[in-house]
Amino acid sequence: MSRTRNIMVASGLVAFASAGLAFPFYMASSRQPVIDPSKPLPPQATFRGPYINTGSRDVGPDHQTYTKK
After folding, report:
1. Cβ atoms 34, 27 nearer than 8 A
2. What is the pLDDT of residues 13-63, one digit of tens each?
3. Where is this region: Disordered (predicted)?
4. Domains of the chain by residue range
5. Nearest to 45, CA basis, from 34, 55, 56
6. Model pLDDT, residue 39
7. List of residues 6+ apart from 27 with CB closer than 8 A
């Protein structure tokens, strides 16, 4: 009983891992784009935009003037 159960669990794990590894290749080879450029972005994508670089230390515009060379 124990050996057959181990084989079933191992085959399930192998199937799950192979599906997870194959998913990016499947998405890259699909013909239809993931995001439709003719439609507006969903609200969660537009809300996420300003917060995507919250870890950056660059805060605000640069007020120093630079001379052209």
Report:
1. yes
2. 999 999 999 998 888 887 777 777 788 877 776 665 555 555 556 566 667
3. 36-69
4. 1-30
5. 34
6. 83
7. 34
Residues in the chain: 69
- One DSSP character per residue, 6-68 reads HHHHHHHHHHHHHHHHHHHHHHHH-SS-SS-TTSPPPHHHHHHGGGTTTT-S--S--------
Question: Between residues 49 and 10, which one has the greater pLDDT?
Answer: 10
Handedness of CA 21, 22, 27, 29 (dihedral sign): positive
Closest alpha carbon to 35 in 45, 25, 20: 45
Q: Angle at the Cα of 29 (from 45 to 25), degrees rounded to 5?
A: 80
